[in-house]
Amino acid sequence: MDTISPFSRPLYVMAKPAGPSCNLACDYCYYLEKNNLYKKDLKAGVFEMSEDLLELYISQYIESQTIPQVLFTWHGGEALMRPLSFYKKVISLQKKYARGRQIDNCIQTNGTLLNDEWCQFFRDNKWLVGVSIDGPERFHDRYRHNIKGKPSFSKVMKGIELLNRYGVDWNALAVVNDFNGDYPLEFYHFFKDIRCRYIQFTPIVERIMAHSDGRHLACPADRIDLPLAPFSVKPKQWGDFLCAIFDEWVYNDVGQYYIQLFDSTLANWVGEQPGVCTMARTCGHAGVMEYNGDVYTCDHFVFPQYKLGNIRENTLIEMMYSEREQSFGDAKLNSLPRQCRECQYLFACNGECPKNRFVQTSDGEAGLNYLCEGYYQFFDHVAPAMDFMKRELLAHRAPANIMTALREGD
Question: Helix, strand, coil: what percent of the chain each, to 5?
């Protein structure tokens, strides 16, 4: 199969300034246990990016970009475990090394630590804030709690209220699990009720395998016959969830509420690059850097065998444009089983995320995505609507015209 040049898309590295540190202990979190990869710092209880490493990262990251716009993403763990002074230093260093480039920032948070000072900083510096919230209180608090088991929903909602009060741009990142996946419309209506117009639904899929260092979630390279974590969403449940929300969205909300998966599906339908890596044809252009400078091939592949190096020893360009990373990215396409290669909707999902490819096809070939049944159900369901919106886009008309067409029975 053909390959795509790694230089065709901007190099992207998400930074973890507080490593796996977090003030919450969500049951399904895949990142908390990464502290076991750094035993020395785990004993000291400190996972903090130093100022000299921060400066090295910012200077290299800006210089590595091939376009005039540079997007920095700050993630965790919980990124707000670092003080506000750290991010003020970020702004200072970005200005120092920008050399005329446009610098944008986004940060991911669980929302519980937001206060007036944080929100004013985000507003004044035009940062986009991603807030993790899993729907209404009974859904959110099922798995998202602190280390003492106390719920977090009320604190998250207070944080969102502050973001709205200060006029900060924010979007929601909602995990779909075995519980809330059964209530798609209640889930979706909640986000509409709180006036959240940008929503990313992420299906949680994890397998269990004990490791000698204390980790208990399986690595993508581990054997396929491993038990699923109980909170994992089921394939048909995921398909039903997406179809139910799509039906309301396509009749009422196109152009008003933006669901990342729906937007990415439409992008693939018209042959454009989707906005989420899991739906792209290849991957390997989006790495992650830990608090100590270790760079890994992907946020979901922070395991020893996927470490590319350390920024103190290798440049981001050397690591992210390496033959090893290119091979990793191309493998998303090149390792697809025959059932996927012959599927009529291959163009729409591209096999989704490689971390979820641990089941067998109908003829026993390995490498099928665990969520395949749900995605196929969704694509088959939305195909007529996607065809209509594609025609509208190609004719330079608004995809939202589909709502009028549906009401008129067209």
Answer: 45, 15, 40
Q: Can you spell out the DSSP letters for 156-187?
A: HHHHHHHHHHHT--EEEEEEE-TTGGG-HHHH
For the chain, give the mean pLDDT.
95
CB 20 within 8 A of CB 302: no
Annotation says 193 is catalytic: no
When mean pLDDT is compared across 6-20, 74-88, 107-121, 394-408, the lowest value belongs to 6-20
What average pLDDT does this structure show over 120-136?
98
- Compute φ and ψ for 372, nearest 5 degrees: -55, -45
Contacts of 201 (CB under 8 A, 6+ apart): 174, 176, 241, 242, 245, 259, 260, 261
What tokens does 210 get?
Answer: 């004990």
99-113 pLDDT, tens digit each: 999 999 999 999 999
The span from the CA of 133 to the CA of 347, in Å, is 30
pLDDT value at 271 more than 90 = yes
Candidate list 299, 330, 363, 410, residue with the active-site label:
299
Are the CB atoms for 110 and 132 separated by under 8 Å? yes
pLDDT digits (tens, 9 = 90+) for 130-157: 999 999 999 999 999 999 999 999 999 9
Residue pair 80/124 in contact by the 8 Å Cβ criterion: no
Averaged over 336-359, what is the pLDDT?
97
DSSP class per residue in 309-354: EETTTS-HHHHHTSHHHHHHHHHHHHT--HHHHT-TTHHHHTTS-G
Cα 271 from chain centre: 21
Tell me which residue of 230, 368, 204, 231 sits closest to 300, measured CA to CA: 204
Pair 88, 121: CB distance under 8 Å: yes
Q: Contact, 203 vs 371, CB < 8 A?
A: yes
